[in-house]
Amino acid sequence: MCGNFYENGLNFECQRCSFCCGHSPGFVYLSKRDLLALCDFKKMTIQDFVARYCRWADYYYGTQVLALIEQKNYDCILWDKGCTCYEARPVQCSTYPFWSWMIESEESWNECAKDCPGMNKGKLWPREVIEENKKKYVENLPLHREEVLELIKEELNK
To answer: How far apart are CA 32 and CA 44, in angstroms?
Structure first.
């Protein structure tokens, strides 16, 4: 899309404040790619990973999808003075802050920047990279309960 407010790129450089990794309730939805990468990284079965690190989150049309649980202070379950699974972190995390709804308009970007000290600072990200991250975010669909149960069933039958 040409002519958008980030045509010349956007500045963002993580300040390691961890605000996006916790501090308030939220959801880190897991796609099949995310779940398999995290299981591989942790050397865990799908069944064990889901039991230890996940919860069911209400989603659209009365469905439920897989999400990471939170600690009591709302920090991500994978957070401990840094992401304990950084190399395998979910696409939702790796594409931040270039999520479709955050870059929808300059107003939405600047509203989100009020909570993120890294937005509008540091490295200039080109439009192409922003669009690539937006696409990854949009296409990274969370796993529905039935899909996770099927993956566990397949795993048990191996």
So the answer is: 15
Per the CB < 8 A criterion, the answer to whether 68 and 53 are in contact is yes
Per the structure block, which two tokens stand in for 16? 């390691």
- Output the pLDDT for position 2: 53
Q: Report the distance separating Cα 39 and Cα 26, nearest Å.
A: 22
Q: Which two structure tokens, joined as six digits, stand for 108? A: 């939405």
Residues ≥6 apart with Cβ < 8 Å to 56: 64, 65, 66, 67, 145
Both tokens of 112, joined, read: 């989100």
Distance set, CA 112 to CA 25, 30, 39, 101, 119 (Å)? 16, 22, 31, 10, 8
Q: Give the residues across from 66 on adjacent strands.
A: 56
Q: Is the pLDDT of residue 1 over 50?
A: no
Task: Report whether 38 contacts 49 (CB < 8 A).
Answer: yes
Query: Does pLDDT of 33 surpass 60?
Result: yes
Residues pairing with 135 in the sheet: none
44 neighbors 52 (Cβ within 8 angstroms): yes
| Nearest CA among 16, 57, 50, 58 for reference residue 34 | 50
Structure tokens at 2: 């040409």
What's the pLDDT at 3? Answer: 61
Contact 33, 140 (CB under 8 A): yes
